[in-house]
């Protein structure tokens, strides 16, 4: 049979040549996708920067929920919801203002302390403390003396300063009221306890004392270890530092290893999970009007001496200042939420980023008993006695 010169057989190249061609094809494809991804990331970066630096002066209402509250209600953010509390009871709401549970009670002067997994409400001047989790009431505590201050751990363990002019007590209870540790304070020797804070794991208790017996103002900051390290110490005390001429009026734990004592013109960062030691003392050079914190930042409102208004500043856990801005106006409620500092009073609010950029200053359109950031760009929850509003910042 005669051959056909028009027919040619395809002879494939070597395996190496085939792999090289495939590699070249993949590189061209990845380069194309890389260019597209780079353009997209650049666009998102520009949009993100624009959002960060954008200033807003008004709000738009996204959604409104009716509220069956009363004017004497107070609110606190807890877990994924909101605690509403008053003299008559405690209610836990989700962020759609739906009631999850309701605990009636009679508390004349309620004060709240909130941790991540539990919160406690005490009757200042009374003898009742109620401990809650997100599932409801965990336990009730009856004290033998009037309550002045309290602090709760994630497990629901509560330490309270109990008032007695000559011999106050600091008693630590479990969530159902059993006494775990009792400290009888010698006022002449140690001073009167003015602040108390418990670590989230209930291993450490920090107490600030004020002593004026010698005619010299002295603050003492003590730490008590309830674990094995403190068992062989007198009263479980592992640290006691003195500060002359300073009132250490506030204490708080930022994490298990970091806690802070706040004075009238300075603050001290303590480090240590078992035996805390003062590691950084930061002078503020201005009078502290108020202090607030998150697990990452320490914030202050400082009174300007030579100009009107105040300074808002924040520090990280290493004691480095991360923001400082001057502002005017009076705000009763100030807190750090994520990377925002939120200040509000009535219907007026002011919001800064932790880097010092003012995001919002204006009217919320309603009085706010609580102002909470929610999921979504520039969205917040405004809660008061009449309604709960979801708002978005607007120009």
Précis, in short:
Keywords: Membrane, Transmembrane, Transmembrane helix. InterPro entries: DUF5711. This protein is mainly beta.
Structure notes:
By secondary structure, the chain is mainly β. It has a domain of 250 residues: TolB, C-terminal domain (Neuraminidase, 6 Propeller), CATH 2.120.10. 10% of the residues lie in helices and 50% in strands. It is built from 1 helix and 32 strands. A 4-stranded antiparallel beta sheet has the order 1-32-31-30, with no helix packed on it. Strand 22 and strand 23 form a beta hairpin. The mean pLDDT is 90.
Shape: globular
The poorly predicted ranges are none
Percent helix, as a range, is under 10%
Overall pLDDT confidence = 90
Number of helices: 1
Tell me the strand percentage band.
over 45%
Characterize the biggest β-sheet: 4 strands, antiparallel
Strand order across the biggest sheet? Answer: 1-32-31-30
CATH architecture of the domain at 82-331: 6 Propeller
Structural Rg: 29 Å
> Structural class, from helix and strand content?
mainly beta
Number of E strands:
32
Alpha carbon gap, first and last residue = 88 Å
| CATH class categorisation of the domain at 82-331 | Mainly Beta
CATH superfamily of the domain at 82-331: TolB, C-terminal domain
CATH topology of the domain at 82-331: Neuraminidase
Transmembrane segments: 33-53
InterPro entries: DUF5711
Keywords: Membrane, Transmembrane, Transmembrane helix
